[in-house]
Structure formats: structure tokens, C-alpha cells
Give the backbone structure.
Amino acid sequence: NAGVTQTPKFQVLKTGQSMTLQCAQDMNHNSMYWYRQDPGMGLRLIYYSASEGTTDKGEVPNGYNVSRLNKREFSLRLESAAPSQTSVYFCASTRTWEMNTEAFFGQGTRLTVV
Amino acid sequence: SQQGEEDPQALSIQEGENATMNCSYKTSINNLQWYRQNSGRGLVHLILIRSNEREKHSGRLRVTLDTSKKSSSLLITASRAADTASYFCATGGSYIPTFGRGTSLIVHP
């Protein structure tokens, strides 16, 4: 039982390059989320998908786009990477939208933009 | 802005001692959850307490919730070196899981 799988685990980008972070869950969860974690800032929500076919902005969406490809997969795209996007990115999923059950997290993608 | 805020930001104790960390939040909630993050890893769910509960236990963990003060506490009893991690609270019921900045716990052997 894999849970939430993120790829890649590490990535170095040059300023201006683009990339897509992949996330897949095998728990048949309805809702999925992308967070970034920076030192001293905790986890900040970038985008979320309450259910298949819907996506919405979170606290820090600028510079990112997302796609809920199907119920299992939720990708995060950086169109033109900037050094300020250097961070650790986490994907998470919950069974229900109302957060009445636990969230499951992937292992994270450590991204460095130079 | 953060919905939940953990306190203290850092905590250093000896193995066998108890560790207490607190979480304050701003708006009404349906539940409050605590998570642990080991260095470089994803968050792992520890315990969920609903708004109509005042206390909940799970192994060496004890969580309390005071909705009148909008606060919660996590107590880890008889701590072990393996408890070294960051601990986060998250509030449910606002439809989006929001996390605080976390408490960094170091347990010295």
C-alpha cells in the first residue's frame, strides 16, 4: 500500500526553467493538496482539489498551476521557476473535503532553483 | 496567515521526561489534529480530537482541547530519542487543512 507517491524526490532547476511535480494516491481519496514548506514558515497551501474535476487557489498560488488529471493524480507545474520557489513541496490527500479524517502526505520533493 | 500556531517553537528534553506542546487557533473548528514530521520526511498523522471532546489518548500521547480558549495541547509521556521530530497541529472544519509552524522537539538520550 503505497499511500501518496511524489516524484521526483530532488530537483535542481535554473531560473526560468519549467517542471511538473507529480503526485499520485492509491487510497481512493477525493481531495488532494499541494503545500510548500520553508524554514520558519510551516506548511503553506499552494493549490487544492476538493474533488476530481475541481481545483482552487490556496494561500500562495502565484507562479504555480495545477492539474487534477483523474481521481488519483494531482500535478503541480512551475512554468518559469524563480529562486523564491526553492522549497520542499508536499502533496497530501484526504478522504473527504471537510478534513474530518486524517491527511496523508507524500515524502516531499526538494526543489532548488539557481 | 496561519490558523494554528504551536508553542513553543523549540523544546529540548532528556529521554524519559514528558514533553508538552500547545496549539492555538483562531476560528471555530470541527476537529483538531496533530502530526509528526521526522527530518526530511512527510507529515504523519498522530491523533484527531473532535470539537465535542475534551481529552483523548493514544499510547503515550495525550491531547486536550479547550474550545473556549481555542487551544489544544499535546503531551508525550516518557519521551524517547525516537520522538525527536517536529510536531504540527492542523485544524479541520474550515474545509482546508491548515497547519501551524510547528514545534521542534529534541529528545536527548
Q: What stands out?
A: DSSP finds no helices and eleven strands in chain A.
